Amino acid sequence: MEMAKIGATPKGGCKRLTLTDLDKEGRDLFRWWCEREGCTVEVDEMGNMFATRPGEENDLAPVLMGSHLDTQPTGGKFDGVLGVLGALEVVRSLNDLKIKTRRPIVVANWTNEEGARFAPAMVSSGVFAGVYSKEFAYARADEEGKTIGGELERIGFKGDKPVGGFPIHASFELHIEQGPILEAENLDVGVVTHGQGQRWYEIRLTGFESHAGSTPMPRRRDALLGASRIVELVNKIGLSKAPLGVGTVGLMNVFPNSRNVIPGEIFMGCEFRHPVDTTLTEMDIALREGVEAIAKGIGLTYDLKQIFYYAPIAFDKDCVAAVRRAAQHLGLTHREIVSGAGHDACYLAGVCPTSMIFTPCVDGISHNEAEDIKQDWSTAGANVLMHAVLEKAEIAG
Known about the structure:
By secondary structure, this protein is an alpha/beta fold. The chain contains 11 helices and 13 strands.
């Protein structure tokens, strides 16, 4: 609740976009909390923060846990934040209980997980995992032309620690489900086994702007009409691959955006998600064929680009088993679940053994100021995280 005060919105949510002054304020508070618990905080060249609790054998690869502190423009208090502060609470509990571990434990805060200000999402964990180059990430710009590299410098979080390159024994990310399944089934915890693959697209449709009153219907080249049909197409493709497949149009800009001018150009963004890569490819083909037919049918030209892709991933079986054992040990109700959202853990899975823990969220709502969880849910998730981490870090005393 203290972190949620930074960027608090009138409707009870949070707007703390990455690398803004508010993000800096949140990062500074997180650093202070970590240092107060005896952790050493390092910042890498992408602004990723790593708070290390020493182990008895600090030459061993650490166990990592964490998530992100940045939010959507109309985000909630818990998306990402639960994973960072839940991890910090694990450290606090270990300190309170005077538990020592053989391996060091690291709490991470990853930069720009949301992708709300700078696309693509998870770009910094992507650099850490070798998916993107640091130069590519630094050059990502927001709508005002400000870049990740420049904003890291401006807020003082362009660290000097190299990005990645160090071994991680195991990694766990606690997160709200961002969906309705766990609450609907009255379960305490989700044991995340897989992460959905994603394809993001940008589409520019070009027609011809002309007078809304004097241009006959058969002579129009209405770009917005084409965009409307693409919205329906994306929805149809998603439904055809239900229940795991989803398709969304979440961005659209209309030009010239005047009430009495037929729109001459549309810029729009859409995406597909599915945990099976061959199915995701089928959705891609259907989009490309459908957009071509729609544009041709009403005299539009178009440019369609895939701007982001990562394949579906299976989380490490041993880490998944550690999460399951923790839930069983604590007597918590649980089930296996597939993540419908992208997470930093999905990139980390490419470089170290990784898994996730889900808590329910009220009505499955996320990326919304109404996002909410219950105290019992967060406690259960943090307890599972603690036991899974201790299994991998090994109690030394």
